[in-house]
Specification:
The complex is a heterodimer. Chain A is an alpha/beta fold. Helices cover 43% and strands 21% of the residues of chain A. The longest helix of chain A is centred in the last third of the chain and has 16 residues. The mean pLDDT of chain A is 88. The mean pLDDT of chain B is 88. Helices cover 75% and strands 3% of the residues of chain B. Chain B contains 19 helices and four strands. By secondary structure, chain B is mainly α. In chain B, helix 18 runs parallel beside helix 19. The two termini of chain B are 41 Å apart. The chains are: A alpha/beta, B mainly alpha. At the A-B interface, helix 2 and helix 3 of A face helix 2, helix 4, helix 14 and helix 18 of B.
Chain lengths: 123, 427
């Protein structure tokens, strides 16, 4: 079973969204951004989801620092549309493991992301 | 002091000059890759000198992640009050500093932007303030925010340690608040007491952090951030002027760090705004220090928002310059120690994150309540309805505008519509 570390603004809301979408097929760990990125870096967690106002700042700054820019991506932000399932799949295919979403888009972005992750590991 | 004056509209030229210089100094720091304001941009800046990304591409990214904060977060508050929210200047400086190739173009364009933005915002706010009943309604909109900000710490504690601890912290906040109100007889009770309550609340939060109740991570050396710290230090000449100008602008009541501080300045409580600014330091230190030292790119506003907090308290320009310089020295001189602390005390990150959550929740709920009341005062049930419907539509559309900005947009719309109807004899 995969482990998803969640952090940032509204992290409990992200955790609920992940649990609901995963329906028992993923473990969720609520952490600080530093702990969540470190967990992915050390292989303790498989994916990272963070949130902040913009989906790029607090959501991804620490993850980018610890994991590197080529392993993180922003899925939503204020004033831009939430990433489509196709875009999310592309991001996963290119090796992204850390995802930033705008706090206000958690309920739209996180279920799509979790479904794409699960589809990828459970073809 | 010289003023830009058109009819009854007056704006100190010093404000235009300070914001022009702040935008220029800030954009110069960005252009030299010494600093950027947006946390989401900072860790991408090294891609420039690693030749992994062209400058214009990064400028476009900076615009994409920053424009929402300018238009759909900071702007309505500045238009409503005439006080500049720092995001407007510094996020624009991020874009301008990256966009232009030549230093002189960066300086000219950003100075012009800062000066023009100052005049436009002041003129718009001047127009709003001359609408009938506007000032009273504005104060009504801000009243719930000014009354609830002492609970920031309690909400942060609830986020980090659970509701039970949050309730205990809220009770403690109330108790301290009450004691201070009783003690501060003869002065401006409520605002002084609120400021005191938050200050004490901050101390409580600081105690939680410094009490090191969480697990301690063994020190693993400074490999992750040593080079970044050196790079930040090498760029110190670009990192002095923006903070000093920020402190000066805040000392004159021209500049606020985010909407909550702006609201407190607008209701005349500089001490409360300063308390929130120092609370913000607890909230943002982990994020700024980590993202800056691993990338080697600092923030023009340093640890948000202690320059602003110092300015709110000093309230005169010469003292503000001295305070700004002193804080720059402390900030840059303590980077290694702060990073060591953050690396060995991971709970500080959790507390910072929870504190940022509270900065969203407490004023967000309060400004909605205030805007409904204020719009009701201006436009009756229809006015209140407009604010509520705009908020609900924004939610239904997936929040294209940040929830904290929608009530203010709604309030401004009601104020303008109400005036137009009265002018037409329909109100």
């Amino acid at each position: 079973m995969i482990t998803i570390a969640v952090c940032g603004m509204g992290k409990e809301q992200i955790a609920r969204a992940v649990r609901s979408a995963a329906d028992g097929r993923a473990t969720v760990e609520v952490k600080s951004d530093f702990e969540a990125a470190s967990a992915v870096s050390q292989g303790v967690a498989d994916y990272y989801i963070g949130a902040c106002q913009s989906g790029a700042g607090g959501a991804l700054a620490i993850a980018t620092a610890i994991l590197g820019a080529d392993r993180v991506t922003r899925l939503s932000g204020v004033g831009i549309p939430t990433a489509t399932p196709e875009t999310i799949i592309e991001a996963l295919e290119s090796g992204r493991v850390a995802f930033g979403v705008a706090h206000s888009h958690i309920d739209q972005a996180v279920p799509n992301l979790v479904e794409a992750i699960l589809k990828r590991i459970e073809p | 002091m010289s003023e830009l004056s058109i009819g009854s509209f007056q704006l100190p030229l010093a404000a235009v000059l300070v914001f022009g210089l702040l935008a220029a100094a800030s954009a110069l720091a960005v252009h030299k890759t010494a600093a950027v304001y947006h946390d989401g941009l900072r860790t991408s800046v090294p891609e420039l000198w690693l030749n992994q990304r062209p400058r214009v591409d990064l400028a476009k990214y900076s615009y994409a992640i920053g424009i929402g904060f300018v238009l759909a977060y900071a702007l309505p508050y500045s238009l409503a009050t005439g006080i500049m929210v720092i995001h407007i200047i510094l996020l624009s400086s991020d874009v301008l500093g990256l966009w232009f190739q030549r230093t002189w173009t960066v300086l000219a364009a950003s100075f012009a932007f800062g000066a023009v933005a100052t005049v436009v915002i002041a003129a718009a706010a001047f127009g709003m303030q001359h609408l009938p009943d506007y000032e009273g309604a504005l104060q009504a909109m801000f009243a719930p925010v000014a009354a609830t900000f002492p609970f920031l710490v309690a909400v942060a504690i609830a986020h980090q340690f659970g509701v039970r601890w949050g309730v205990a912290a809220a009770v403690l906040t109330l108790a301290v608040w009450r004691i201070l109100e009783t003690a501060l007889t003869g002065s401006d009770h409520s605002l002084s007491a609120k400021s005191g309550a938050l200050t004490l609340g901050l101390m409580t939060l600081g105690l939680v952090a410094s009490a090191f109740t969480g697990p301690r991570t063994p020190a693993v050396g400074d490999q992750l951030y040593a080079e970044g710290v050196k790079r930040v230090h090498r760029h110190w000449p670009y990192l002095v002027l923006p903070p000093v100008l920020i402190t000066v602008a805040a000392s004159q009541g021209w500049l606020a760090g985010e909407p909550l501080q702006l609201v407190l300045l607008a209701v005349g409580s500089h001490e409360a705004a300063a308390a929130v600014a120092f609370y913000s330091v607890v909230a943002f230190i982990p994020l700024i220090a980590m993202s800056s030292t691993v990338s080697g790119v600092w923030n023009q506003d340093g640890y948000p928002d202690w320059y602003l907090g110092a300015g709110y308290l000093v309230r005169e320009p010469v003292g503000a310059v001295a305070a700004g310089l002193a804080l720059v020295a402390v900030e840059l001189g303590s980077l290694r120690r702060v990073m060591h602390l953050l690396m060995t005390r991971p709970r500080l990150h959790g507390i910072g994150s929870a504190a940022r959550d509270a900065l969203d929740v407490v004023p967000g709920v309060s400004i909605l309540a205030g805007a409904v009341v204020a719009a009701s005062g201006l436009g009756g049930v229809i006015g209140a309805g407009i604010v509520v419907v705009m908020y609900a539509f924004n939610e239904a559309k997936g929040r294209p505008i940040m929830p904290m900005a929608v009530p203010v947009f709604g309030f401004l719309l009601v104020a303008l519509t109400s005036d137009a109807l009265q002018t037409l004899g329909l109100g």
